[in-house]
Amino acid sequence: MNRWTPISRDELEGLLADQLAKCLQEHAEQFARLRVPFRTASVMRGGVNESVFIVAQLGQVAIYYEDVEEGFNVSEVASDGSLITPGFEQWTITDAIQHLLALPHDRVRSEPATARR
After folding, report:
1. What DSSP assignment string belongs to 9-77?
2. So what's the pLDDT on residue 88?
3. How far is 3 from 11, CA to CA, in rounded Å?
4. Phi-psi region for residue 81, left (φ > 0), alpha (ψ -120 to 50) or beta?
5. Of 65, 80, 73, 84, the residue nearest 18 (C-alpha)
6. DSSP run (H or E) holding 100
């Protein structure tokens, strides 16, 4: 049985480059505008605090790579840098870009804006 290990920065860079090479130029350009230097963010997984890499950000919402699910996700980022609304999707970078750009400015998932006030 293989033991799971977190994705390395170099592995993620390679994965991202592969996916960007296969996506539409429009999506690659959108990602280039949103891209940030990789940084880690805390995420709770099964009651354990672990880390993921943020790869892009728009305001307080980031695209990060969920290496357990092996896909990109979108989450709001707290002031301490942790993820507020982590997901479990297995999106490509193109899917994540489209979801990020489609989000209303005052919410991340389906949470009503009034619940955040």
Report:
1. HHHHHHHHHHHHHHS-HHHHHHHHHHEEEEEEEEEEETTEEEEEEEEEEETTEEEEEETTTTEEEEEEB
2. 85
3. 17
4. left
5. 65
6. helix 93-102
Confidence bin at 1 (pLDDT 50/70/90): low
Hey, what are 115's tokens? 């619940």
DSSP helix/strand/coil, 84: coil
Which amino acid makes up residue 34?
L
Are 89 and 73 contacting, i.e. CB atoms less than 8 angstroms apart? yes
What pLDDT, on a 0 to 100 scale, did the predictor assign at position 116? 38
Going by the DSSP 8-state scheme, the letter that residue 55 receives in this structure is E
**Separation CA 56–CA 13 (nearest Å):** 13
